[in-house]
Write a structure and sequence with these properties.
Layout (H helix, E strand, L loop, with lengths): L7 H12 L8 H10 L26 H9 L28 E3 L1 E2 L2 E2 L1 E3 L2 E2 L4 E3 L2 E3 L2 E2 L4 E2 L4 E3 L2 E2 L4 E2 L4 E3 L1 E3 L4 E2 L4 E2 L3 H6 L3 E2 L5 E3 L13
Length: 215
């Protein structure tokens, strides 16, 4: 597994150094960590019960497929990691956001979500969500359909879009009517990344939206 704690400036320094190294494969486990271990003070902790030796819950999310699977487990009726367990609270910082909102209740336009997790600040406006996770402040517009997907914060999914088995990166604006995960050849032609298991990654850069910077 890999849960790492870094000084932020040091991490940026190492990522930039590795990005500039033409001999690196640019893999965290194979390049960055070995480089650091041989040159700096590094500490490791064996993640198991010290009395029984039984390994605690963990998932390898080092690949897109692994990341997608770990998230999708959470929508199961009884996931191994139960985020609703009051005896094992998750300590994290959360923005103060309004509750998720579902609007329109008409035969031809209904905001709804089934077998899904919808975070605070989301507005589901006449869209249908199935077996998906919507992170904070996502908007899904009329007749959009999102299935088996992860939609990260601050995304906007346009009218009549179809998303199937996708990872939509933070801040993406999905244009009206776009279909992703329906035709993988079309996805690749647009520059989206399709994994071996059919998960489609979409980032703002792939959509021509210059949201993120690298330096």
């Amino acid at each position: 597994m890999g849960i790492y704690v870094f000084n932020t400036n040091f991490l940026f320094e190492q990522l930039i150094r590795d990005a500039d190294d033409p001999h690196s494969t640019h893999d965290f486990g194979f390049d960055i960590i070995p480089h650091i271990v041989s040159r700096y003070r590094v500490f490791a902790h064996r993640f198991a019960d010290e009395n029984t030796g039984v390994q605690s819950y963990w998932r390898d999310v080092g690949t897109l497929d692994g990341y997608w699977k770990a998230n999708m487990e959470l929508v199961e009726p009884e996931p191994e990691l139960n985020i609703y367990d009051v005896d094992w609270p998750i300590r994290t910082s959360q923005s103060q956001l309004p509750p998720a909102k579902f609007v329109w209740d008409e035969d031809t336009r209904r905001g709804m979500a089934v077998d899904s997790l919808i975070s605070g600040g989301c507005i589901i406006s006449g869209a249908t969500i199935r077996r998906s996770l919507l992170y904070s402040n996502v908007r899904a517009h009329t007749h959009a359909v999102i299935e088996d997907s992860l939609v990260l914060p601050e995304c906007d999914v346009g009218r009549e879009c179809i998303l199937r088995k996708c990872i939509i990166d933070r801040g993406c604006i999905i244009p009206e009517g776009m279909q992703i995960g329906v035709d993988h050849d079309a996805d690749r032609a647009r520059g989206f990344r399709v994994t071996d298991e059919g998960v489609v990654l979409v980032t703002p850069t792939m959509l021509g939206q210059n949201l993120h910077t690298t330096r």
